[in-house]
């Protein structure tokens, strides 16, 4: 008997990975809503110490709260119901010859992943409550005091790895992009590579990655430092919550790509807008801007494993000419500030702090930020940490999916048996038929990438796939679509 069947990507992933993969969606915010020294979580009512790349609601401002975000006329993200605010420090390049700073191009805007990972003993996930806000990362961090690369996660259950201090530092990633080779896994490197490494290896730029805490105390929607009311699960992205933070929220993950390769061959230094040349001080802010009941419905029902917003019927998806023309209103003091360059100091003139000592920039609950932070250089240029390229590991049998990580479809005999079991069944694949395959010798890879085609066009590669054929006494052929791509049009030369 010969039995041939075809299944789409989603069905194949459901069949192969349901034991290891939780549902998610990635919220594309392809256009900035602004680039400005605005940060209501740290510098409420005044100007921020440094410039941020802003995404989301047009209601964002120096005093914005939940009501202001919801009242915003538009959002720069693709789903009209998402009036949240997402922001991170911008990236600049300082030319050694001139000393001037220039904004690095941001490719494809940003992606905010909503990963639906429950605790092992409770599958309930709660939406972010109205008024919820948090910060991930530490703007003043300038070192990493743990082994490089990370030890395997199975060893994270003992000190010092079973601490929030470690998990906070491990929540940063700087993914060296080269689309001609197998991608690195997410959160592999917790610091910004030095200029020579970037020029030699990162031909498609660097993807800045940031994981947010997903464990909540269930009481406080915010805290003085914007961190104390939340905690990381035991494996940063996956794992279980601490007992005093029992409520599991969506695991929020930011990806932002900066075109560092544009400056290849030019002597200089890449610098985060907060005066950090190391990357250890990378951070991000989030203010919830969804209708709470709507978001809970999305958490409960938007469970398609493709991760695409188009696969959730709840979402209203905007055209690019709508979201790309959504901008925040700048305060008069910032209306004419040059945040693009070339400029002799970073916007706001924050002090340049190399570390390894702790920096002194403004932080939530700490000193207030001012329009002029004083500038200057703190510490000395320290030897850059190094971590060689490493292809992302297969996540098929040992890990849960991570954004930018790699799925591997097994082509071994056990996979054949599993496919045959489904092929000969009269019923559709169900959770009872799920098989967890071993790591394959010849896997198919699934990942996300961006490729700049021209000045106003970006190509998004949602995944890279191949046809997998398995044969036994009876033949079953599984056909997976070839690499899917789509073109994303941006305003020509759009910069803020």
Describe what you observe in this structure.
- The strands form 8 sheets. A 5-stranded antiparallel sheet has the order 1-7-14-10-9.
- The chain has helices at residues 9-17, 66-71, 164-170, 195-201, 292-301, 320-323, 413-423; strands at residues 24-29, 34-36, 52-56, 85-89, 91-95, 101-103, 106-115, 133-137, 172-176, 206-211, 215-216, 230-231, 247-248, 251-258, 268-272, 283-287, 341-343, 352-355, 377-379, 407-408, 445-446, 449-454, 457-463, 468-471, 475-478, 484-489.
- The protein has 496 residues and is of the alpha+beta class.
- The longest helix is centred in the last third of the chain and has 11 residues, at 413-423.
